[in-house]
Design brief:
about 1250 residues, alpha+beta, 6-stranded mixed beta sheet, 25 helices, globular
Length: about 1250
C-alpha cells in the first residue's frame, strides 16, 4: 500500500498460507547503509595536554562569541499568508468521488484542513557536520524556504535529516560512509559529528505520547574514535534519553509515516536532476518507486519464487521417501535383536553409574579444598584493606596538581585492569571461534571422500551403458546402419561430455586459486607504495634541511640552528625581534637544541642520548604565558611552519626560574641528564617533563646494562634497580629495554643513530649528506620491491584471466555437446524403421549418479564457503587481540610516566606515598588472587554440579534399565501397555536421588566399563550386529519412524501450502493492479487540479505495458487548441510548472508528514524559476496538513513571510571572504 504503512512480510517467506484480509500488506524492510562500522579504528591514546593550533584557537574564539549558529528567518512573523486559489467544483467533485471509492480511504495521519501535528520537523541541529561547525534551524509547520550561495551548507541540512532519520551515507549522494560527512576543518581534536532532528508528536497519531510527550528528538552520533558511540538516541520532550534501539527508531518512523528514502518525500539534488531531465521511462520508474508499487511487485515475485522452491522441495521429498521406508524396516529388525542384550546392558549401566559417583566424589573433594583456600584469601584481603586505610591516614596531600595526577593514575590502573580482562576474554573467544572452523574442515574432508566414490559409481554406470549400446549395434545388423550410427554418435558424445565435465571442477578451482593469489598480493602493492612514498617524503624533508643549513651563515666552527629544523632559524630571528619590542609577556626559549651541550669526556653517549630524547624534541620553543602562545602561533604562521615544525610547549612560570632537582643516575651507568648539559632552565625542565630525560639510563652495551640495572626476584619478576630509571638505552645502535609487569621488553631503534647536539655547521652538513645517501639507497630498494610486487600482481592477473578463458571455453563446449546429445536422442525417439533395445535404465542410472555428484559438489562448495566465511572472523578476533595487547602496553607506559611525575612533585611525601603504594599493590595483588580464586571456586562448583547431575542421570538410567529388564522378563520380552517408563527424568526425580558412596576410584570403574563394552561387542559380533549400544539402535529406529512420518506430513503440508500460496498470490496481484489504477487516476486528477490553479489543464498518460509516463498539457483550460503532448514545446515556466505539478500530484498519494525538495529549480531560467516558486508557495500553503521544505540557491525576496511561511538565508561560505581565495559561482541555466 502506497501509504507506506510497514507491516510484516507476506507469509511466502514462512511457506504458510496468507489470509485474504492481508492482501493490502506491503513489505518495507529498510536496510541501514553503514560503511563505517565501529568508526575510526586505531588505539585510544593518552598524552599530555597539547597547546591548541591556530585553527583551534579561532574555533574556540568563535564558539565563545557564538556558541550555536542560528539561521535568520526573514520577514515578519505576524504578516498574514496569502490565501490559496479556489479549486474547480467539477474537478473537486471528480477527485472526491475517486477518493470515496479508493482502497486508501481509511488513511488518517494529519487529516486535511488542519495543521499537521505529528511527524513534522520542529528543529534541526548539527555539530561538526559537513561544512557546519554548529547550526540550528527552527522550522515552521507549513512552508519553509532555505536559500543561500553554493557551498553555504544548504544541502547539509537535508543530509542531516536523511542520516538522522535512518538513511545511509550513500543515500545523501554526499559521501560513501558516515565518517566522510564529519567536518574536515574541525581538526585532529574532533571526536565526531552530532545531529539532532526534533519532530512534533501531538494529536492522535503521535508515537507513544505517554513516553515521549509532544516532541521526539532523534540524535545521531558519528564517532571518529575507536570505542566511541556510533548510533541513534531517542529523546523525549524534556531531552531525556528513552532508547538507543534502531528497532524503536524504525517503529517511530513507521508510526509517523516518515520516508526519508522515498524520492517524492525527500527530493535531493541528484533525484531532482534525474526527474527533471529524465525520459518517459525514467518518470514511470520514479512514479513506481515513489508510490511503493515497485516494492510490491518485487514482493510478489519473491512469493512466486518461494512457490517454485516449495514445489521442488516437495518433488525431492517424494523421490527420497522410499529409502526412508526401507531404512525404517532395517532398523526395526536390528532393534528386535538388541532386546536380547538387556541383561549385559544393565550391568554396563551399573558400572557407569558407579563411575559417575566416583567422579563426583573426586570433584567434590577438589571443591572443598578450593573453598578453604578462598576463605584464607578473603581474610588476608580484609587485613590488607585495614593496613591501607591506616597508611592513607598518614598522607596530607593538598597540592592540586598532585591530586590531578593521582586521579590520572587511578583511571589508568582501571584501564589496565579492563585491558587485561579484555585480552583474556579475546583469547577465550578466539579459541572458541576456532572450534567451528576445525569441524567444518573435517566435514569437508568427508564430503571429498564421498564425491570420489560418487565419481567412481558414475564412471561404472557409463561403462555399463556403453556395453549395452554396443550389444544394440551388434544385434541389429546391416539393416539398422542408421540407428547404429546414431547410437554410436550418442555414445561418443556422452563420453566426450563426461570428459569435459571432469575438467570443469579443476578449472574452476584454478580460477579461484589465481583470483585468491591476485587478491592476496593487492595489499602488498598498497603497502609498498606507501613505504616508497614515505621514504620520498623523508628525502624531501632532509633536502629542505640541507638547503637551510647551506643557506645559513657562519664559519666552519659555528653552530647551525637549521640542524634542528629548516624553520628554526627564521622563527628564532622573529622571536628575537619580538623580544626586543617587548611583545612577549613572559620569558621565551627555543629552539631547545641550542641550549644543549655534551659534557666533555662523554661524547660517546651523545648519539644514544639524542635517541632517548626522541624526534621533535630539540626544535621546540617554550613559553610560560597563555598570551605568548597566541603570539608564537602567529610567528610560526609568518615563517611558514607546518603543524609539526617548531611546536610549542607551555610550562608554569615557577618552572622557568630554576631547574628541577633530578637525582643522579645509579652507580656504573650514565643518564641523559649526566651526559648532556642544558644551560636554560626552561629548556631543561621541558626535556624533563616532555622527554623524561631524568628516567633514561645510557650504557655501553646490553650486557653491561643488564648487569648494572636488571633485578630479578624470587618469583622471576624483573625490575630496574634505582627506582627512578624507566628505560635503559645502550650502544651501538641505540636500542633500549624496559621492565613492564615483571617482564623484560626489548625495543629496537629502526631510525638509526644521528647526532645534532654538539656538532658544528660543517659537520652537521656532512652528517645530513650521509643521511641523504642512506635514504636514497633505501628509496632505490623500496622502488625495486614495489616493482617486484607489481610484477607478481600482473602475473597473477594474467594467470587468472587465462584460467577464466579456459573455464568459459569448456563450459561452452559442454552446452554445445548437451544440445547435440538432445537432438540425437530426439531423432532416436521419432525413428520407427528399426526397433531398438531400451537403454533408458542405464541412462537413468547415469543421471542419478550425476545428481549425487552435483549434490556432493554443492555441499563441498557450501562447506568451503562456510570455512571462508569463518576465517575473516578469526582474523578479526586475532587483530582485536593484538590491538588490545598493544593498548595494554601503552597504558602501562602512561602509568610509568604519571608515576614518575608524581614522584617529582610529592618530594617530602615520597616515603609515605611509597609505603601506601606498596600496601595498595599488595592489596591489589590480594584482590586479584581473591578474584582468581573465586573463578577457580566457581569452576570447581560448576564441575562438581555437572558431575553430580551426570551421576544422578546415570543412576536414574541404571534403575530404569533394571525395571525395564524385570518388566521384559516377566512379560516375554515386551513392556506391558501402561507400564512404560520415561526415558528422561524430571528435575524433581533427579533431585530425589541420594548420593551413593562407592569404594573404588573412577579409574577402576572406567576399566570395568571397557571390559563390559568389549563383552557386549563380542556378543554383537556373534549375533552379526553392527551397533554397540541398544539404546542407540532403539533411538535410531524411533527416529527413522518419526522421520518417515515427518516426511509424509511434510509432503502433504507442502502441497497444501503451495495451493494456498498460489491462490493468495493471484488475489494479491489482482489487488495490486487495482492499487496501480487508483493511484494513476489520483495522480492524473491531482496533476490537472494543480494546473487549473494557473488556468491550464493537463493529463498524465500512463502506459503500463511499456512502462512509460507522458504529460499532456493544455495551456488554456478553455481552449483545446492550446493542448500539446510535446512538453518541450512549452516555455520554461510552463514546463517547470507542469513538472512540479506532477511531483505534487504523486505526493498526494503519500501520507508523509513532510516533504523536502532540494534545488527543485535546477535548469530553470529566472522567469520560470519565479513562477515555480510562487506556485509551490501557493500549493503548499493550501496543504496546511503537510510541511514543505524547499532548498534553493536563488533569492527568495519576492516571497512574503508569515506564520505559515518562513525563509532561512544561509551565511556565505568562509572561503569567499579570503582575498585571492577560490570563488564559487552559480551558473544560470536557460530554459532550452
Amino acid at each position: 500500500m502506497v501509504t507506506a504503512k510497514r507491516v510484516k512480510r507476506a507469509a511466502a517467506a514462512e511457506a504458510s498460507p496468507v489470509k485474504e484480509e492481508e492482501a493490502e500488506e506491503v513489505v518495507y524492510d529498510k536496510e541501514n547503509e553503514e560503511n563505517s562500522g565501529g568508526g575510526g579504528g586505531g588505539k585510544k591514546k593518552r598524552s599530555k595536554k597539547r597547546l591548541p593550533s591556530d585553527d583551534e584557537e579561532d574555533y574556540e574564539a568563535e564558539s565563545n562569541n557564538d556558541e550555536e549558529e542560528e539561521l535568520d528567518a526573514g520577514g515578519d512573523e505576524e504578516a498574514p499568508a496569502s490565501p490559496p486559489p479556489k479549486r474547480s467544483k467539477k474537478k473537486g467533485a471528480n477527485k472526491a468521488a475517486a477518493l470515496a471509492a479508493s482502497p486508501l480511504a481509511d488513511r488518517h495521519v494529519n487529516p486535511t484542513g488542519k495543521p499537521a501535528e505529528a511527524g513534522i520537523i520542529s528543529k534541526v541541529y548539527v555539530e561538526n557536520f559537513m561544512c557546519h561547525r554548529k547550526l540550528s534551524v527552527d522550522l515552521c509547520r507549513n512552508v519553509n524556504f532555505i536559500h543561500g550561495q553554493n557551498g553555504s551548507g544548504k544541502s547539509a541540512i537535508l543530509a542531516a535529516v536523511q542520516v538522522c532519520l535512518g538513511a545511509g551515507a550513500r543515500r545523501t549522494h554526499r559521501a560513501r560512509n558516515l565518517k566522510d560527512l564529519v567536518r574536515k576543518e574541525a581538526g585532529e581534536g574532533c571526536t565526531g559529528a552530532k545531529l539532532r532532528v526534533t519532530l512534533w508528536n501531538k494529536g492522535a497519531d503521535g508515537y507513544l505520547p505517554d513516553v515521549y510527550g509532544d516532541y521526539i528528538t532523534v540524535e545521531r552520533t558519528i564517532s571518529l574514535r575507536s570505542g566511541g558511540f556510533n548510533g541513534y538516541k531517542l529523546l523525549d520532550c524534556t531531552g531525556k534519553e528513552q532508547s538507543r534501539s534502531k528497532k524503536d527508531l524504525d517503529a517511530m518512523l513507521d508510526q509517523l509515516n516518515i520516508q526519508v528514502e522515498n524520492p517524492v518525500a525527500v527530493l535531493d539534488q541528484e533525484e531532482a536532476k534525474k526527474f527533471l531531465t529524465g525520459k518517459a521511462e525514467d518518470k514511470y520508474a520514479f512514479f513506481t518507486k515513489a508510490t511503493e508499487l515497485e516494492r510490491l511487485d518485487n514482493c510478489y515475485a519473491s512469493i512466486q519464487d518461494n512457490i517454485l522452491e516449495q514445489e521442488a522441495t516437495g518433488a525431492r521429498a517424494k523421490e527420497n521417501i522410499n529409502g526412508a521406508i526401507e531404512n525404517t524396516k532395517k532398523l526395526k529388525q536390528e532393534w528386535e535383536q538388541f532386546q536380547q542384550l538387556d541383561k549385559l546392558e544393565v550391568e554396563l549401566q551399573d558400572m557407569r553409574a558407579k563411575f559417575g559417583w566416583s567422579l563426583h566424589e573426586e570433584f567434590d573433594g577438589t571443591l572443598q579444598a578450593e573453598l578453604k583456600k578462598e576463605q584464607k584469601f578473603a581474610r588476608s584481603l580484609e587485613k590488607r584493606k585495614g593496613e591501607l586505610v591506616e597508611a592513607e591516614k598518614t598522607l596530607n596531600v593538598t597540592d592540586d596538581e598532585e591530586i590531578e595526577l593521582k586521579n590520572q593514575l587511578t583511571a589508568l590502573a582501571e584501564e589496565a585492569s579492563e585491558a587485561a580482562e579484555g585480552c583474556s576474554t579475546l583469547k577465550n573467544e578466539l579459541s572458541e571461534a576456532k572450534a567451528p572452523l576445525k569441524q567444518k574442515e573435517r566435514d569437508r574432508g568427508v564430503l571429498a571422500r564421498e564425491l570420489a566414490q560418487a565419481k567412481k559409481a558414475h564412471k561404472n554406470a557409463q561403462k555399463r551403458l556403453e556395453r549395452a549400446r554396443k550389444e544394440v549395434m551388434e544385434s541389429q545388423g546391416n539393416a539398422a546402419n542408421e540407428e547404429r550410427e546414431r547410437t554410436r554418435k550418442i555414445a561418443q558424445t556422452e563420453q566426450d561430455l563426461a570428459a569435459a565435465k571432469e575438467k570443469v571442477d579443476p578449472l574452476k578451482e584454478d580460477v579461484q586459486r589465481y583470483l585468491t593469489d591476485y587478491q592476496d598480493v593487492e595489499p602488498s602493492v598498497a603497502n609498498m607504495k606507501d613505504t616508497r612514498e614515505g621514504t620520498e617524503k623523508q628525502v624531501h624533508a632532509v633536502q629542505q634541511r640541507l638547503k637551510a643549513m647551506q643557506a645559513e651563515g657562519g664559519g666552519a666552527g659555528s653552530r647551525a640552528l637549521a640542524v634542528f629544523g629548516s624553520k628554526c632559524k627564521p622563527l628564532y630571528e622573529a622571536v628575537q625581534k619580538a623580544v626586543k619590542t617587548n611583545k612577549f609577556k613572559g620569558p621565551v626559549a627555543g629552539p631547545v637544541g641550542m641550549y644543549v651541550k655534551v659534557v666533555p669526556g662523554k661524547e660517546k653517549f651523545a648519539q644514544i642520548a639524542e635517541a632517548a630524547i626522541g624526534p621533535g624534541g630539540l626544535d621546540r620553543f617554550v613559553v610560560t604565558h597563555k598570551d605568548d602562545v597566541t603570539l608564537m602561533n602567529k610567528l610560526r604562521r609568518d615563517v611558514g611552519c607546518g603543524p609539526r615544525e617548531c611546536a610549542l610547549f607551555k610550562i608554569s612560570p615557577k618552572a622557568a626560574k630554576q631547574k628541577y632537582n633530578v637525582p643522579a643516575p645509579p652507580a656504573g651507568v650514565e643518564s641523559v641528564t649526566s651526559v648532556l648539559n642544558v644551560e636554560n632552565a626552561m629548556a631543561f625542565n621541558f626535556l624533563v617533563d616532555n622527554c623524561n630525560i631524568d628516567t633514561s639510563a645510557l650504557t655501553e652495551s646490553k650486557e653491561s646494562s643488564e648487569q648494572a640495572l636488571l633485578v630479578k626476584d624470587g618469583q622471576g619478576r624483573r625490575s630496574i634497580r634505582g627506582g627512578k630509571i624507566r628505560k635503559v638505552f645502550f650502544l651501538p645502535n641505540g636500542d633500549h629495554w624496559e621492565a613492564k609487569a615483571g617482564n623484560l621488553v626489548m625495543v629496537g631503534n629502526d631510525r638509526g643513530l644521528k647526532q645534532t647536539i654538539g656538532v658544528d655547521r660543517s659537520a652537521a652538513i656532512e652528517s645530513i649528506k650521509h643521511e641523504m645517501k642512506a635514504l636514497h639507497t633505501e628509496l632505490t630498494r623500496n622502488k625495486e620491491e614495489e616493482k617486484g610486487v607489481k610484477d607478481a600482481q600482473h602475473k597473477a592477473k594474467v594467470a587468472w584471466n587465462r584460467s577464466k578463458k579456459d573455464y568459459e571455453k569448456v563450459t561452452t563446449a559442454i552446452k554445445k555437446m548437451e544440445q547435440v546429445l538432445d537432438e540425437l536422442k530426439a531423432e532416436a525417439e521419432v525413428s520407427e524403421e528399426v526397433p531398438t533395445i531400451d537403454t533408458s535404465e542405464f541412462e537413468q542410472e547415469i543421471e542419478e549418479a550425476e545428481a549425487v555428484m552435483q549434490q556432493l559438489k554443492d555441499k563441498e562448495a557450501a562447506a568451503a564457503q562456510e570455512i571462508e566465511t569463518l576465517q575473516p572472523g578469526l582474523a578479526e578476533k586475532q587483530k582485536s587481540l593484538d590491538e588490545m595487547t598493544a593498548r595494554n602496553n601503552k597504558i602501562l607506559d602512561d602509568i610509568d610516566k604519571v608515576e614518575a611525575k608524581l614522584e617529582d612533585i610529592v618530594k617530602g611525601q615520597t616515603r609515605r606515598q611509597e609505603a601506601v603504594d606498596k600496601v595498595r599493590a599488595k592489596m591489589q595483588q590480594m584482590e586479584q588472587a581473591v578474584e582468581q580464586q573465586e573463578e577457580v571456586v566457581k569452576d570447581a562448583k560448576e564441575k562438581a554440579a555437572e558431575a553430580l547431575a551426570s551421576a544422578r542421570k546415570m543412576q536414574f538410567d541404571y534403575e530404569r534399565e533394571v525395571k525395564l529388564c524385570k518388566l521384559k522378563t516377566d512379560n516375554d520380552g515386551e513392556v506391558p501397555e501402561g507400564h512404560e517408563l520415561p526415558e528422561e527424568p524430571t528435575d524433581e526425580e533427579l533431585a530425589k536421588i541420594e548420593v551413593v558412596e562407592v569404594p573404588k576410584e573412577q579409574a577402576y570403574y572406567k576399566a570395568k566399563i571397557k571390559t563390559k563394552q568389549k563383552k557386549i561387542e563380542q556378543e554383537k559380533e556373534r549375533r552379526n550386529l553392527s551397533e554397540s549400544d541398544p539404546a542407540v539402535a532403539r533411538d535410531k529406529y524411533h527416529r527413522a519412524k518419526k522421520d518417515l512420518q515427518s516426511k509424509i506430513d511434510q509432503i502433504d503440508a507442502i502441497t497444501a501450502n503451495v495451493n494456498d500460496l498460489t491462490k493468495d498470490l493471484k488475489a494479491r496481484q489482482k489487488r495490486w493492479k487495482q492499487f496501480r489504477g487508483h493511484i494513476a487516476e489520483m495522480t492524473n486528477l491531482g496533476f490537472d487540479e494543480f494546473l487549473n490553479k494557473k488556468g491550464s489543464a493537463g493529463e498524465v498518460e500512463f502506459d503500463h505495458e511499456e512502462k512509460q509516463l507522458n504529460l499532456i498539457v493544455q495551456k488554456d483550460n478553455t481552449d483545446e487548441k492550446s493542448q500539446t503532448k510535446d512538453v518541450k514545446a512549452l516555455s520554461g515556466g510552463e514546463r517547470s510548472f507542469a513538472t512540479l505539478s506532477l511531483l505534487l500530484a504523486i505526493g498526494e498519494s503519500l501520507e508523509t508528514p513532510f516533504r523536502v525538495m532540494d534545488e527543485f529549480d535546477v535548469f530553470l531560467d529566472p522567469v520560470a524559476r519565479k513562477i515555480a516558486m510562487q506556485t509551490l508557495t501557493e500549493v503548499a500553503l493550501e496543504m496546511r496538513h503537510r510541511q514543505f521544505i524547499f532548498i534553493t540557491p536563488q533569492d527568495c525576496s519576492s516571497l512574503k513571510t508569515g506564520p505559515m511561511l518562513k525563509i532561512f538565508k544561509m551565511k556565505a561560505p568562509a572561503r569567499n571572504a579570503k582575498v585571492g581565495g577560490p570563488q564559487q559561482q552559480t551558473l544560470d541555466f536557460g530554459s532550452n
